[in-house]
Amino acid sequence: MRIIVRILLVLAALVCATAPALGAPAVDDATGRKIDELLAVRAEAGAVDRGELLARLSARLLGTPYGANMLVGSATEPEQLVVDLRRVDCFTFLDYVAAASRSTDRDQFVTNLIATRYVDSRVEFTQRKHFFTDWAATGRIAATDITASLSPAAVTTTKHLNAKADGSNYLPGLPVVDRAITHIPAAAVDGGVVAGLRTGDFLGAYTPEAGLDVTHVGIVVQTPTGPVFRNASSLADYQVVDTPLADYVRTTPGIVVLRPL
């Protein structure tokens, strides 16, 4: 889903928090089966490189219904560890794929999900990685921002993440974080940029809006018919889909690219 919509829904529903979750998360049967499927893909993949592994795992989630506001917690309500593969938004889609890529059983999956979603594995609203570039800027570091290396046309802008143009915050209870965000304008995403992308790269749709880095995220997958953007779509498809990368980029102001570690 688009991250700005997700943030607004979180604020409206007031469903996240500062207190750590207690005990193991409840996992429904459908989610348990899907986790086992992902773990089987991981086991069968052997020694493939990380990008190919992410592609194989994410392929297993194609067709998964999109769900808005999947995570639970706010500045006034306890954070809960959510493990729900019946529906995903664009960010939880990446969370689950990244966690599965490092796991061999369900316990490891949950442990790695926590480490992926939360700074220092602390299940707290204030420690949740709310912004795409948190993956490359806060522990545990999950990716490297390679955007600047892909094009001389890359532009760097200092953003005040979480601060709206009117001075209020998108997410009350979280600080404003100043961060240099580098993006490649959509018009500059040419053949050279595309050639520099690898299967498994995380791609975000840059936004010039104050307080946000991107509005949507997904995974780049190189296919025999060209690169696609694999994402949990909140548009007409309402599910995890493959969208031709060039078609998607044309709908954005630009892209931010993180390469998984």
UniProtKB/TrEMBL annotation:
InterPro entries: AmiA-like, Papain-like_cys_pep_sf. Coiled coil: none annotated. Keywords: Signal. The keyword Transmembrane helix does not apply. Residues 1-23 form the signal peptide. This is DUF1460 domain-containing protein.
